[in-house]
Protein: Alpha/beta hydrolase
Organism: Lentzea tibetensis
Amino acid sequence: MDPELEAFLPLFPKSDLTDPVIARKNLAELAASIPVPDIAGMEVEDLAVPADPDVPVRIYRPQLAQGAIIWLHGGGWVMGDVDTEHPWAARLAESSGAVVISVGYRLAPENPFPAALDDVHAVLTWTAEHAAEFGVDPARIAVGGHSAGAGIAAAVALRARDEHGPRICFQLLNQPGLDDRQETWSARNFTDTPWLTRDKLASAWGHYLGSAPASPYAAPARAADLTGLPPAYVATAEFCPNRDEDITYALRLMQAGVSVELHQWPGTFHGSQAILSAEVSQRQNAELGAALRRALAG
């Protein structure tokens, strides 16, 4: 493990998803301690996207932005909102120059699949219809997220393709949760890794799926056909249960004719980019912004 990251391990709180209310409180406290970049020259606005129910979003508008990303927070489908994602959404808008639409999708277990996917699809449709109001080219709308949010982003790309919905130009997938089966080498061997353990991951999938059978829109790794999907940037952490399912998904995208940039970050663990003092974390966060900037400029 990267020594700068390893030094923080004794400070990491033990966490699980047995009690979602407590888990959400702990995440909110952690997020409040993360510094936010200078966004004084950026317009930030909270809105409710019309849906059933309405979906809260926080929109970050850098000057002269030409593209946008529907951005989805992590948290195992159980934790997180636009407030806990504020440091990261603001950082992405600042580093990429893109409009970032951070989505407060409904959380499990109170709202299991497909509630979150429906919320995100509603925001995607709304964004495509209102792109001109943001000064955004409707051909330059991306989707992306961290962890569980990245999994939802991959799923909404599948749904938009299948339903001939709004065109998505790019997927920015950071350590996505893609496969509920947990049968890969990393899922079977990284059972007690920092932040994301096998038990915590199993709980997250259980909360998200509820009583519904897993489908490709819930677990995109189950999709048989990946042709026709948007180009993707996939980032993985070395000591992460999700690592191998993410690499496999990236390879399958390539084999389906999709252009992919795959970055496996050595010495890192799931979510370790939140340790901003580490040099590798600084590179990870900068690369997410740079990858989005490149994609939307193309």
User: Anything to note?
Assistant: Residues 279-297 form the longest helix (19 residues). The chain has one domain: 3-297.
